[in-house]
Design a protein that fits this description.
heterodimer; A: 2 domains; extended; B: mainly alpha; about 0% strand
């Protein structure tokens, strides 16, 4: 982890916040920051080793970082208690449907594009 | 003796040190159990940590604000970590440039399905608007999903828990669903796991097959971006 690349991440986040708030976008600042960094890497056409190491160091324990917010669910226990049937059903149906739709569209498009290639050859 | 302990407790409960330390201890206890259980998705370390910490706060009568004064130092790192997700996204993007359009269409279809089906089912079963808005980004990786929930009027901490539950469901049911549909292409299988159940689904895909893992990781990043952009538009049409 180098100080320089931590600064790069913070600058991207700050830019993201400024753009998001400035333009009144309904997008989280860090997500705009992520898009800025991604586009910069594509334009630059390469990933500096230091940035890769800094990012990996930070992402290694990504799941630790949302524990404090997760604990905040204790303030909203009534929602889970009162609506657990609806929530469980929604999560179950939606997860299976999302897996199915994504995989089927991917396989379908693969066949479609392949058959086009075959037609041209 | 009793009095001495009480004084120490009164002192510690007002400093950020305690909240920060118990967060790290609870998470590492969760990791310890998860690793001992051969990374079984039902023993998710974040879920264990959250359950332990909520129990601890309730038993000691500590309010969430007091705890968060300490835990906010961990929480703050979510922003830079979200920006850092651009790095694995870029690495995976490099590998799949040629089929990128196909992948993007599949992920957009998955992203829309995730939000609409969750909102639809919960709405039919009578959920409150607060819950509906918190459910909508549940297939997205937690740091991004919480940001989306905050921007769209949901409850970020409820979203965090729903995101983890979705991840666990995807990891447990993914293989079964994909086999039932006779999907054999590892790229499609990975993409589906990453889109529907973010990091937890990606971890599961990586255990099964390297190609599936790479596509799951790509899908996780892209679905985060896609949902952040599309969900406010979709919600604008519905509510």
């Amino acid at each position: 982890m180098t100080l320089g690349f931590i600064t790069v991440l913070l600058v991207c986040q700050l830019l993201g916040e400024v753009i998001s708030k400035g333009l009144g976008l309904p997008l989280p600042g860090p997500v705009v920051g992520m898009a800025i960094l991604f586009i910069s890497l594509v334009l630059k056409g390469g990933l500096p080793d230091g940035l890769r190491e800094t990012a990996n160091g930070l992402l290694k324990h990504l799941s630790l970082l949302f524990v404090p917010a997760g604990v905040g669910v204790m303030m909203h226990m009534h929602l889970l208690r009162d609506e657990w049937q609806a929530i469980s059903a929604a999560l179950l149906v939606s997860t299976i449907l999302t897996i199915a739709v994504t995989a089927l569209v991917m396989v379908g498009l693969g066949r479609l594009l392949k058959s086009e290639d075959g037609g041209e050859a | 003796m009793e009095n001495g302990f009480h004084q120490i407790w009164v002192y510690l409960s007002t400093t950020p040190l305690l909240g920060l330390t118990v967060t790290l201890v609870a998470y590492q206890a969760g990791m310890w159990i998860y690793i001992r259980a051969n990374l079984h998705p039902l023993l998710n370390p974040v879920l264990i940590a959250v359950v332990v910490l909520v129990g601890l706060l309730v038993v000691t009568g500590t309010d969430y604000r007091t705890y968060f004064d300490g835990a906010q130092f961990v929480h703050f790192m979510l922003g830079p970590a979200t920006v850092a997700l651009a790095v694995p996204l870029y690495q995976q993007f490099q590998k799949v440039r040629k089929s990128f359009v196909m992948i993007l269409v599949a992920i957009l279809a998955g992203s829309t399905t995730a939000a609409l089906s969750a909102i639809g089912v919960a709405w039919v079963l009578g959920s409150s608007q607060e819950t509906l808005l918190s459910l909508a980004p549940k297939s997205v990786t937690a740091p991004i999903a919480m940001g989306i929930a905050e921007a769209t009027g949901g409850v970020p901490s409820l979203t965090a828990v729903l995101v983890i539950l979705t991840g666990i469901l995807g990891a447990v049911l993914g293989t079964w669903t994909l086999n039932a549909l006779k999907i054999k292409d590892w790229r499609a299988r990975g993409l589906a796991m990453g889109t529907a159940s973010h990091g937890i689904g990606t971890a599961r895909a990586l255990q099964v097959n390297d190609v599936a893992g790479a596509f799951a990781s790509l899908a996780m990043g892209l679905n985060g971006l896609a949902t952040a952009v599309m969900l406010p538009l979709i919600l604008g049409l519905i509510f």
